[in-house]
Amino acid sequence: MKTNEGWTEVAFNGRDPVYLQVVKFFKEQLVIGKMEAGQIIPSRRELGALLKINPNTAQKAYKEMEEQQLIVTEGNSPSRITMDENVLRAIRAELIGEAVEAFVASVRKIDVPVEELLELVKHKYTEDKQLNGGKQGGGAQHD
Amino acid sequence: MIEVRDIHKKYRRRKVLDGVSFQIEKGEITCLIGTNGAGKSTIMKAIMGLTPFRKGEIIIDGQKLGKERYEKISFIPDHLTMPPAMKLDEAMVFMADFYRSWNEDRAKELMGFFQLEGKERIGNLSKGTAAKFNLLLGLALDTEYVLMDEPFSGIDMFSRALITEVFSSHLIEDRGVLITTHEIADVEHLIDQAVLLKNGSVIRNFNCELLRMEESKSIVDVMKEVYQA
């Protein structure tokens, strides 16, 4: 499975429920294209071993993802990421929303005029994209 | 389920355990947390019937058990108890003779997983390797419960990672596990239930995911509240 490399690097924090962090991890992988719609996901036991978590937690994460319709299990076949475009779009929107919210919450304390802020964001965002796009795999470092 | 019910124990005039009660569920990992001398090892020994106690009882799957408990629970103490002159292979033969629940295939699998050499003598093992073999001896028993006393103490980070891996594998699945540890960081995301001991009693007992969910606290946060207050 092509997603295997990324698994070992998951660093869980101590204060959020681990199963929800696993769900978040799946959503992130999906949004950044490391996982694909329709892809078969590891079994509960495999996931436990991959992420070094308790199989109970893996089970709980899968249950949650099933409830959120992020994964689907039909009969005895292994679970897959959903093909439902609406769910996938909603996940993307959810993650972008969360990131923007966190950014706004932290920058609001400084009280920047919105035009100045938008200009800064635009500049920084396009600059980073160019850097990353131009030096693929070069391990580009920011100063 | 193992039920520890109201255990009291004194060493001379000091109360070591002062009414300890908690439960170990099958399919879950329970962690006993406490400062040195809090009675963690004593509780494990009490469950195994290796130390007498003044009051209280240990109920295993609804029964008070005698020596039958050794086929039902395996105890991995914090040091290897096999004679140093024995080879690893010999120690495993010893286990096979002693326990009906000894699972030869699983022992072999673990020898490979931990990269242990059967011809080696126990006395020549490094601390980390001895800890792995110690774990092997306990995990290769097909028991419903496993008690591990400080499985991470004095072990380098790579061996620790290997041992951590055991906890998310089929070697543990469906068994009821009780561990004690100082290095909570290693197991923080693995354990289901935490039992915090202070002055010989259980001061907090919680499900770790529920704690994170309802109070947004880490296990370490609660430990600070309990032990630094």
Note down, in words, how this protein is organized.
The complex is a heterodimer of chains A (143) and B (229). With 143 residues, chain A is mostly helical. Chain A has two domains: 4-81, Winged helix-like DNA-binding domain superfamily/Winged helix DNA-binding domain (Arc Repressor Mutant, subunit A); 85-134, no CATH class. Chain A is built from six helices and two strands. Chain A has helices spanning 4-7, 18-31, 44-51, 55-67, 85-108, 114-134, and strands spanning 71-72, 80-81. A two-stranded antiparallel ribbon of chain A has the order 1-2. The longest helix of chain A has 24 residues, at 85-108. Chain A is elongated, with a radius of gyration of 18 Å. Mean pLDDT of chain A is 84; it is low at 136-143. Chain B is of the alpha/beta class and 229 residues long. Chain B has one domain (2-227): P-loop containing nucleotide triphosphate hydrolases (Rossmann fold, 3-Layer(aba) Sandwich), CATH 3.40.50.300. Helices cover 32% and strands 26% of the residues of chain B. Chain B is built from eight helices and nine strands. Chain B has helices at residues 40-47, 88-98, 104-113, 127-139, 157-167, 184-187, 208-215, 219-227; strands at 2-11, 14-24, 29-33, 55-60, 73-76, 145-149, 176-180, 193-198, 201-207. A six-stranded mixed sheet of chain B has the order 5-6-7-3-8-9, sandwiched between helices. In chain B, helix 3 runs antiparallel to helix 4. The longest helix of chain B has 13 residues, at 127-139. The two termini of chain B are 33 Å apart. Chain A binds chain B through residues 12-20, 45, 48-49, 51-57, 60, and chain B through 27-29, 164-165, 167-170, 173, 188-192, 209, 212-213, 216-221. Chain B: It comes from Paenibacillus algorifonticola. Chain B: One of its GO terms (molecular function) is ATP binding. Chain B: Residues 2-224 form the ABC transporter domain. Chain B: This is ABC-2 type transport system ATP-binding protein. Chain B: Keywords: ATP-binding, Nucleotide-binding, Transport.
